[in-house]
Design brief:
Number of strands: 8
Number of domains: 3
Structural class: alpha+beta
Order of helices and strands: HHHHEEHHEEEEHHEEH
Oligomer: single chain
Number of helices: 9
Shape: flat
Amino acid sequence: MFTIEVVVRALIVYPWTILLFRLLGKGLTFQQKPYDFMVMMLIGSAAAALIVNRDVPLLNALAALVALAIMHTVISLFSLNNTLKGFIGGKPDLLVRNGRIVKENLIKNQVNLDQLLSGLRNKGYRRIHDVEFAILEANGQLSVIPKSQLRPVNPADLQLKTVYKGIPTPLVIEGKVIPESLRALQRDEAWLTAEIAKRGLQGTEQVLLALLDTDGSLYIAEQPPINPIKAFFVGEGKDHLLGENPDM
């Protein structure tokens, strides 16, 4: 009976927890703040404990998870206030300023020199004097701004004109046509079917992915015949040579 009850609790608590995280929004994982990490840890730990702890009534457990989610939402709303956001979410600190280490901020954030050097190397900078600013963000990530002489050259520096390149629009995903994308691009399924036929495919069912770029080029990836069970356990199984470029 204990095993059955644990399974039932898991089947209820898991989707309930997923729903709560979904309602909390993408901000929970985007540039995660300290209180975001805390609520994820609390909800995750509480949910795991609730599954195996039969002494806690299930309804009370679900209500407790909702209470945590509401508290996090309130804190997040307060963090939108310019006066409170620094206190709640923390503020960024300069670890390197004009190529010089700011030791006071290393001590404040309990970051040692090895960690700083490692963080700079991960960003592609092996010398501190190549760095204008190194900023420890409120979410714990390190942002690095190189000195102007070492920044990559871009078209604006050379006064070159560039062609607009936007985001390719998906037309077919996993064999299913996306009608709203066709309408937005003022195309129809007849045009799409004709383009697919030019690649030697019989229909959209044979298309894994079709993308229309802003320059008018159409990318089509063929839906390969696969064994789902084998793919789940071993993937492709071994490396294969790249075939013909599908973007023709």
